[in-house]
Specification:
The complex is a heterodimer of chains A (about 240) and B (about 300). With about 240 residues, chain A is an alpha/beta fold. Chain A has helices at about 40-50, 70-75, 95-100, 110-115, 120-125, 135-150, 165-180, 195, 215-230, and strands spanning about 1-10, 15-25, 30-35, 55-60, 65, 80, 155-160, 185-190, 200-205, 210-215. Chain A has a single domain (about 1-230), classed as 3-Layer(aba) Sandwich (Rossmann fold). In chain A, strand 9 and strand 10 form a beta hairpin. In chain A, helix 3 (about 95-100) runs parallel beside helix 6 (about 135-150). Classes of the chains: A alpha/beta (about 240), B mainly beta (about 300).
Chain lengths: ~240, ~300
């Protein structure tokens, strides 16, 4: 179980990104975080992964306060984070990056399994460098594979659908469904209806605040109604 | 054949720069402290003393050689040696050959250990040559470890040469000068990997002239500069006909190191297509952060990035 308690993030100029946010993300489930662009979704995920330090409040994993742990320590505790904008590495091949992720050498079959899940053919990509020669869609799939390779108890995926073609997207939805059945805790930042539909839980973040949270069956109709009415996907402010 | 004339320092250096494990299979010439420690020719590869009376050797690869490897490493195993050698390669038409060169310099005292190899490559029509070269400096002495390779390359029609050169540790001073002239449809590929540290200084100069229609070259240098080391990279690619040329210089900076990169492209034909890319800077913080999200410490992440970059 992941938890934020009264977390705020304030820029030095006084601008607030996250405002006194308290949130519980259930363990062993697929939670989709959605909401308008610029609302604080990515920042929220980065606070959990340790990439961004909150100005105040605390971060918890399975009852343990991890606020003061750095990125490496949180990764070793079992938190993975797939970047929205993947990082490129000159010289590192897809295989080397995935082996770095897994913390061990990977067999050809394991590589096939991993790359296959994100719609890449191993033979074509195993020795490709993770550099500027990969397209936006290709590097995004490699990024997702780095998270899958770790197989940690908590995985964050930040807009995994961005740049992914329709065919690979279908496979990706299946992968999330499969991980969900294995009882992994997954947090996916997404606007995609197909991903929202397979969520156990939906969290709506807007203007740095929790606007809505609940089971998919409960939240989806409100989101859809909001969209049809032309409003932001905002139901109500939780606790307001 | 066991090579008895090698001293232990040389044997270790040879292992590092040329994969030596007590013997070489096929043709070889081992240069140790300005002398010859062993030589063997084969039916296809003949190694003889330099015919112009200069110190060094000539390597003659027979026309049509189907794919052989020749080893020509050089080592300086102690201080106060300033070795100069001239090696000329004559590769016959259609031959396929791999040349494993490599140089190690070692000094345990205040004397300089220096190797200066002057190479000329005469590569005939349709021949395919791969040239592998590793440079290393070793020993605890205060004397300078210096390697200054010079390569002059002549590629005839349809010939190709692929050079892989690596210098990752211990060389205090190096000045590499490579020139090449390419005839029609000839190909030249150069991959340089370089790491300098401490007060080391490395200078690289590539000068490639593409004279022939359809010729092409690809020169890629990747380097890491640490400590107070200095690196200079100069490349000049000249296109005199319809040809394609690409050069790239990527350098990672750390500590107080400095890197200079000065690419030059001379398109002397309207059909010459020439490209240069250069990027110099510290390791991007996002790269470190990404690897830390995979469980690596900052130091481990930096080492992983540099290992991959120089691989």
């Amino acid at each position: 179980m992941l938890e934020l308690r009264n977390v705020s993030l304030v820029y030095p100029d006084g601008g607030e990104i996250i405002r006194d946010l308290s949130l519980v993300i259930p363990g062993g489930k697929l939670t989709v975080v959605t909401g308008p662009n610029g609302g604080g979704k990515t920042t929220l995920a980065k606070i959990f992964a340790g990439l961004v330090a909150p100005s105040s409040g605390s971060v918890w994993l399975d009852g343990r306060d991890i606020t003061d742990l750095d990125v490496t320590q949180r990764a070793r505790l079992g938190i993975s984070y797939g970047f929205q904008t993947p990082v490129r590495f000159k010289g590192l091949t897809v295989q080397e990056l995935l082996e770095t992720s897994a913390g061990r050498l990977l067999s050809f079959d394991e590589m096939c399994d991993l790359t296959g899940k994100v719609g890449l053919c191993t033979m074509d990509y195993i020795n490709r460098e993770v550099d500027g020669s990969l397209s936006g869609g290709e590097i995004k799939r490699v990024e997702i594979a780095t998270v899958l390779a770790r197989g940690t108890r908590v995985s964050f995926f930040d807009e995994p659908e961005a740049g992914i073609d329709m065919w690979s997207f279908n496979g990706l939805v299946e992968v999330f469904g499969s991980l969900k059945r294995q009882g992994m805790t997954m947090v996916v930042i997404s606007h995609q209806e197909r991903i929202l539909e397979i969520a156990d839980e939906i969290v709506v973040i807007s203007s740095g605040q929790l606007r809505d949270q609940g089971p998919m069956e409960e939240i989806m109709p409100r989101l859809m109604a909001g969209e049809i009415a032309g409003h932001c996907p905002v139901g109500r402010k939780v606790g307001a | 054949m066991k090579i008895d004339l090698l001293n232990p320092v040389s044997e270790k250096l040879l292992g590092t720069v040329a994969g030596f494990k007590g013997e070489f299979k096929g043709a070889y010439n081992i240069r140790q402290d300005s002398g010859c420690a062993g030589r063997r020719s084969t039916d296809n590869i003949r190694i003889i003393p330099h015919r112009e009376g200069k110190p060094g050797i000539e390597i003659h690869v027979a026309t049509g050689t189907p794919g052989e490897t020749v080893y020509i490493p050089a080592v300086v195993s102690h201080g106060n040696v300033e070795d100069l050698t001239y090696n000329d390669f004559y590769v016959g038409e259609g031959a396929k050959v791999t040349i494993v060169a490599g140089c190690g310099v070692h000094t345990d005292d205040g004397g300089t250990a220096k190797h200066n190899g002057v190479h000329r490559f005469f590569i005939s029509r349709g021949a395919e040559v791969r040239y592998e070269e590793k440079h290393i400096g070793e020993g605890g002495g205060s004397g300078s470890r210096r390697i200054d390779p010079v390569s002059d390359i002549y590629l005839e029609e349809d010939a190709s040469l692929s050079i892989e050169t690596v210098q990752l540790s211990g060389v205090d001073e190096s000045d590499r000068v490579t020139t090449a002239v390419l005839k029609a449809r000839a190909r030249l590929i150069i991959r340089e990997r370089l790491l300098t540290d401490g007060d080391q200084h490395a200078r690289t100069r590539f000068d490639v002239v593409m004279e022939g229609e359809g010729s092409g070259c690809d020169v890629v240098s990747r380097s890491v500069a640490r400590g107070r080391s200095r690196q200079e990279f100069f490349s000049r690619i000249v296109g005199k006909a319809r040809c394609t040329g690409h050069s790239s210089c990527d350098a990672i900076l750390a500590d107080e190191a400095v890197v200079t990169a000065a690419p030059q492209l001379d398109a002397l034909s309207p059909d010459a297509a020439l490209i240069h890319e250069a990027a110099i800077g510290r390791i991007a913080s996002e790269q470190i952060l990404k690897l830390r999200t995979l469980g690596l410490t900052e130091a481990e992440a930096e080492a992983r990035i540099i290992d991959g970059f120089l691989k």
